[in-house]
Amino acid sequence: HQACRQGYSALYLRTPRLLEQLRIAHGDGSFGRTLQQLAKVDVLILDDWGLAPLEENARHDLLEVIDDRAGSRSTILTSQLPVDHWHGWINDPTLADALLDRLVHNAYRIVMKGESLRRKNTEEEAAS
């Protein structure tokens, strides 16, 4: 929020939706342009990282996105999957090493504990 107030551009995407957009971009010839757009955003927020299994093409696409941004733009990942499971989720040792090296280098890691606010709010609404 603060970055936007200071004039930085930001883009929020669920990771599965990003991967679907990249798959479509391969098909319609806009993949390069899509990568350029993602590389220019000051703050890219990828939600639901690790939520669904990765196909081979998606692994390569994620590496392209992250590599284009590494060292020049901020990328925020949110995930329910613990970081120590990300390597297995990527499911390709070489790509996982390359991708995680770019993500973890100079990263700030925030671990949030506690119950889900969605679940808590639903339970409170049901009780009232």
TrEMBL record:
Gene3D superfamilies: P-loop containing nucleotide triphosphate hydrolases. InterPro entries: IstB_ATP-bd, P-loop_NTPase. Residues 2-123 form the IstB-like ATP-binding domain. Signal peptide: none annotated. GO terms for biological process: DNA replication. GO terms for molecular function: ATP binding. Pfam families: IstB_IS21. This is IstB-like ATP binding protein. It comes from Pseudomonas borbori.
